[in-house]
Design goal:
Layout lengths: L2 H42 L5 H8 L3 H4 L3 H27 L6 H28 L7 H29 L2 H29 L2
Helix pairs in contact: 1-2, 4-5, 4-7, 5-6, 6-7
């Protein structure tokens, strides 16, 4: 066999091997991503807002993989980020011109509630980093309590507008807070799943 033919044969075999390796790797990655997103989808079915849960948590699939703890962490991150954003938006509205006294009071109360909510979610995230040891259940109970309190604060923020607010301001604030409350509710459900196992 000529050296040129040997080289050509070797290159052909190498190309076939590389193609097979790439195909196998691609198939493995596709199956892995599929199992990760299936896990997130199945876990989200236990929440009150499964579509929102899957939409907001599936971008974290590579980190979450199939870990309930990482899933709960991601849910807290998303909820906390949304709460901070909503709080900032409500604060901006509080400085608006022509704010009625009733709306002003409702916005001030809402800001205080949202600040408490952010604080409670931050506490829960810190606690989630230190769950090792024999008191795991107790620590998870604390996390669950803080996230539940955060959800209550968000609901209380909305209650102030139900009682006192005028139409337009109430609907604007509601748009921000409802999203946060739904995300927090999802986080609480995922944490409760861990707590109850």
């Amino acid at each position: 066999m000529q050296p040129f033919t040997c080289s050509l044969l070797f290159l052909s075999l190498l190309a076939i091997f590389n193609f097979s390796l790439i195909s196998a790797t691609s198939r493995f990655l596709t199956e892995t991503i599929s199992s990760q997103t299936d896990f997130i989808k199945a876990s989200c079915e236990t929440t009150r807002y499964p579509d929102l849960c899957f939409k907001t948590l599936s971008p974290f699939a590579a980190t979450i993989q199939t870990s309930p703890m990482e899933l709960a962490n991601a849910a807290l991150i998303v909820s906390l980020k949304s709460a901070k954003s909503a709080s900032k938006a409500v604060k901006g509205l509080s400085k608006g011109e022509g704010l009625s006294m009733r709306d002003g009071e409702a916005v001030a109360d809402c800001l205080e509630n949202m600040s408490d909510s952010v604080d409670e979610m931050q506490k829960s995230m810190v606690a989630m980093r230190d769950l090792d040891g024999p008191d795991f259940k107790e620590k998870m109970g604390d996390v669950k309590t803080w996230v539940s309190a955060a959800l209550t604060d968000e609901d209380t923020c909305m209650d102030g507008f139900e009682e006192n607010g005028d139409g337009k301001m109430k609907e604007t604030i509601r748009g921000y807070i409802v999203n946060v409350a739904e995300l927090t509710s999802n986080a609480l459900a995922l944490i409760s799943n861990i707590y109850s196992t």
